[in-house]
Amino acid sequence: MSQTPRMAPPLLLLTDISVILGSAPLLERATLSVGAGDRLCLVGRNGSGKSTLLKIASGEVAHDAGTRFFQPGATMRYLPQEPDLSAFANVMEYVLAGLGPHDDEYRVRYLLGELGLSGDEKPAHLSGGEARRAALARTLAPAPDLLLLDEPTNHLDLPAIEWLEGELKSLSSGMVLISHDRRFLENLSRSMVWLDRGQTKRLDKSFAHFESWRDEVLEQEEQEFHKLGRKIAREEDWLRYGVTARRKRNVKRLAGLHSLRAERRNFTHKLGLTKMASLDAATSGKIVVDADGISKNFDKPIVNNLTFRVLRGDRLGIVGPNGAGKSTLLKLILGQLAPDSGTVKLGTALEVVTLDQQRADLNPNTSLADTLTGGNSDQVVVGGQARHVIGYMKDFLFKPEQARTPVGTLSGGERGRLLLALALTKPSNLLVLDEPTNDLDLETLDLLQEMLGDYPGTVIVVSHDRDFLDRVCTSVLMSEGHGRWLEYAGGYSDMLAQRGEGVTAAKVEKIEKKTAPKPAQAPEAAPAKAKISFKEQHELKQLNEDIAKMQAQMAKLEEVLATPALYTKDQKKFIAATASLAELHAKLKKSEERWLDLEMLKEG
């Protein structure tokens, strides 16, 4: 599919990048071009080589073939998936080490405060989420020309994700994002690069257009395969081309989910919480969880006088910032923890299966097939029916040759898929999923959504994935702070519309209390001038002329750089033009900042 030629000069250009792992290519003539102000999202299945391509872009990893160009004089910062803080005494030292000679330390303090960190934290004691926040502060503090962000929302809660979205939107930096968070991609992307079987395909539209475009590409490719009379391997056909059918089925399921939400709203409206609590025993088989006025305190209120009910077939999402008490609430719901006051009654004949977000239930030395079958046969029983383990594995996007692969060698996303497959082999009528979307790629998220749509029982899910909550949940139980929880009909977007804001209120209160500077520490304001001086008036006039000249020069350079195939025909001219453009860009930025200062002084 042809795309409109790009006109902006690149900050970063990767051309025909190839990487060989063993005897098989991981990347094969992959291309990546990022210009100033671009917001480019790099997507692809787990293991497709996205992180490797980003490391090559950052200069951290060498490639076997191809060329890498980065604009001279430009600045770049790279956020890895697993930041290493071990060489630093505390978070503040780690973040300050990422600054350049002219960067502002005040921005470091601002970012740490917004991310809920003081800077005094010791690296050895950081959780995964805290380490990710520290790495984000280090990456964003210099406000570089180019940001390379590998799964920036990993281990973050909803307040941090929503804050990060706003912060990235406010930056003029070019960006390359790797993420499987659909809502995050929808809100930030301007262009998409799809990495598939080692090669890249580009769409200069946002993520909202990506999946339908990808479906078209796959359908065209499948037709071409059949026209050529070539045989497509069954497993490749399912893994690759089945994504289109799964996505279309999930789109249809959303209509059914809206009907369920409407029924629940009407049911709740008719009965009310107090009347729901008094339903007679004849209908008790429909009740899965009946919580009446429960409270729990650990130095602070976690749950305060909460009454709610989960009915058979409900999909309840539990939402709130880290530290709100989501895990404690789950334990109260399941009877693993007794409330300080109030009662929790569980429905009759419940069979509960819990998905552990830490993947702790998997033995790293056991093969994938033996994990699913228990090692006693090649059959697995699902829904009372025996199936061959290879066929069941393929349902979860595993290839037949992976059957004897030790679990310990699987990627995080593959372990997530395996845990889902294992959970659904156990008889259950209540699924409790704690962060089930961690490490899952877009195709696996579609698969999970499809399976939950088919699941006949009840689902309780804790998640920070807004799109997933919208696609799955019939209601959302939201932490309002200070132990207060409210239930909203519908998914995350419905909660947002009813509440008027996201999950930021509790976080803002915490950060302001923790990081607001003391009045004595604030720098004293300079005395106001009565009016702008004659010398400053002359400087302002000169700045207007200089800015206009620089803009004209930059426009000419951009015309030169927009010449088709300039980089391949005259590499020296291309490099000289990009260096001049970078220098002009820096001068223009400095001049515009001074112009703004003088204009404000003039108005004051």
What count of domains describes the coordinates?
5
CATH homologous superfamily name of the largest domain? P-loop containing nucleotide triphosphate hydrolases
**Which CATH architecture of the largest domain would you pick?**
3-Layer(aba) Sandwich
CATH class label of the largest domain: Alpha Beta
Spatial order of strands in the largest sheet:
5-6-7-3-8-9
Largest sheet: 6 strands, mixed
Overall helicity? 40-55%
| Poorly predicted runs of 5 or more residues | 231-236, 267-284, 505-530
Count of separate DSSP helical elements? 19
Provide the structure class. alpha/beta
Mean pLDDT: 80
Overall morphology = globular
Strand content: 15-25%
Cα end-to-end separation: 55 Å
The number of distinct β-strands equals 20
CATH topology of the largest domain: Rossmann fold
Could you tell me the radius of gyration in angstroms?
27 Å
Task: Provide structural commentary.
The protein is 42% helix and 22% strand. The chain is an alpha/beta fold. It folds into five domains: 11-75 and 145-157 and 171-217, Rossmann fold (3-Layer(aba) Sandwich), CATH 3.40.50; 85-143, no CATH class; 255-351 and 428-509, P-loop containing nucleotide triphosphate hydrolases (Rossmann fold, 3-Layer(aba) Sandwich); 360-425, no CATH class; 534-603, Helix Hairpins (Orthogonal Bundle), CATH 1.10.287. The chain has a six-stranded mixed β-sheet with strand order 5-6-7-3-8-9, sandwiched between helices. Strands 14-17-18-12-19-20 form a six-stranded mixed β-sheet. α5 (158-170) links the parallel β6 and β7. The longest helix has 43 residues, at 234-276.
